Amino acid sequence: MLSLSKPPSVEDIKLRLKSAFQLFEAQKQPGFVDEREIPTIIRSLDINPSQEQLRIILDEVRGEDTSTGMVDYGRFESVLVRHFTEMTPSYVRDTEDRLMRAFRAFDPDNKGYIDADVFKTIIASKGDAFRQEEVEVMLGACVEEGKIFYEDFSRLLAEDTFERKYV
């Protein structure tokens, strides 16, 4: 993940962007990705933009040509490098403590877990709602016997993987 405490260099950002872009690159159009993949590419970089931030990024990446639905790497890179070098705290993951407080709000009995079905309903309907497939992927990583033990999950969500893996 990109971090405000020790911002990565532009070169590091470009390397990560190129690597992520290539995973989604269109086979029939090298150097291009389907614009619908851009939110997934961004999230694969451990960046957590809001729906509004994604909309702004997508509008900028599309530019004036929205007819093809495809985005070339040059445009993608220039927009995202600018966004991530002029980053605000809203792109950065929440701290483990903040996540724990949020989970505890849904655990009034202080059991240390919340039911997966309750969590699924919450994240599909509150704030920046997740798509069903995003919910399933997230739950696949953290559900144990229909429960989410949020202490471990909070730690996982708060990890600063960019610094751990790349710096």
From TrEMBL:
<dbReference type="InterPro" id="IPR002048">
    <property type="entry name" value="EF_hand_dom"/>
</dbReference>
<dbReference type="Pfam" id="PF13499">
    <property type="entry name" value="EF-hand_7"/>
</dbReference>
<dbReference type="InterPro" id="IPR011992">
    <property type="entry name" value="EF-hand-dom_pair"/>
</dbReference>
<protein>
    <recommendedName>
        <fullName>EF-hand domain-containing protein</fullName>
    </recommendedName>
</protein>
<dbReference type="GO" id="GO:0005509">
    <property type="term" value="F:calcium ion binding"/>
</dbReference>
<feature type="domain" description="EF-hand">
    <location>
        <begin position="94"/>
        <end position="129"/>
    </location>
</feature>
